[in-house]
Amino acid sequence: MLRTTHVSWASTAKGYMNRVMVYAHRRRKARYLAPKNAHVRSPLAHKMPEEYGNTWDPRSGVEWHNRMRNRNHYRHWPWARWTDDPVRFHQDSVCHRTVSALSTVANNGAPEWDYYAEVGQAYETPSHFPLSYTAPFIYQYTAQCWSREDLQSYLERIEQSSGLRTIADAASRREALYTWWHNAGMNVIPLGVLQHLELVSRDIVAQNARKSYRIEQHERGILRTPEMERYYALPHLRGPSMPVQLAQPSGKYPSGKFTQMMEDVAIHPLQKPDARYKHNMYPA
């Protein structure tokens, strides 16, 4: 007799928790998500496949699991996001009347604080270099206002016509720089360029002074690692590294008195050398 299989018989089994009897199904596997390995110490945990090359930052552990899917007190993690703007870098809604209240353009690029002294960037630029070498350092804070070419032309104009050629000149002769600007360059060069130039040249000169002092102290024997941890080493030693003429052996075969008991050896009666743990427990 022809009978059809009842659908509900195949949908549940009589076993554990009435599970569905479908053995090859991937309904609950989200293949586009990173693998969720909460307690496993695996370099692939909580990473997309293009991040598998980073073996130096394992995101394993339940804390990383909680912060990747925003759980417990990591609910609003990360605390600092790319889009929030604590220093008003992306947009400046307030009109700072630093230079001029009439035109907004004159206020552009005026530094709001000393960026260079606070960031502590490694400049790798000697103080005797020309002023135009500071252009990439100034540009990274003023990219909203001036293009690279404009900034480079401003700095080249300053170094050609103001009489201050080098970074050290701009740091040491600030009054001469501003006097020249008031007399000759007000219509050509924005004031913000001069302010940035003053800050960055002062910081470059200070950093080079610190470096030269560090080199001098290193040569005097006060040794520090790049993280400024003190370490100690021997000075350059004179003379041969080993003795030139070694002490010659005495010529006797090294047969010990207690090893080969050939002659008369006096041993204390309470320290019997052959009794291991019975009679030899006398304290030394």
From TrEMBL:
Q: What is this protein called?
A: Uncharacterized protein
- In its UniProt entry, the species of origin is given as Leishmania major
